Amino acid sequence: MDQLCIVTTGGTIDKIYFDDKSDYQIGEPQIGGILRELGVTFQFTVIPIIRKDSLHISAEDRELLRATIAAQPARHVLVTHGTDTMVETARVLASLADKTIVLTGALSPARFRGSDAEFNIGTAVGAVQCLPPGVYIAMNGRIWDPEKVRKNVDANRFEALG
């Protein structure tokens, strides 16, 4: 892997709980700090482009993400994204050729004990280095083809279509 380009869009992975408001808001991207804490030995850059819950990501936001990734020289791209519309965004990114793009996120904020964020990030980092060019989703310890997966909201996990 030459260099890993990380593009952040917000989502649960970056949420902060505000006790005085009894509410969650999207905070600073967490992935750079997580990777530094874990002592990774590869070079990476973090490009935060939006801070939204994925339910609020628009077609214009997806086009901004696609254009941002297209403009990067890196061939390996990891995208942190909210889980509710991750599949939809992955399908938009499928038009980008010659890049390996892996989307990941978390079902609970990275700042919370027991969050799946670090595990999902680790899975995504491994996947982005090993997979051929294309777009993939890394969640729940699995690598998914965006055309063959959905988020099961009731079970709070990703699963194969059909």
TrEMBL record:
PROSITE patterns: ASN_GLN_ASE_3 (PS51732). It comes from the Bacteria. Keywords: Hydrolase. Pfam families: Asparaginase (PF00710). Signal peptide: none annotated. Its EC number is 3.5.1.1. This is Asparaginase domain-containing protein. It comes from Lysobacter koreensis.
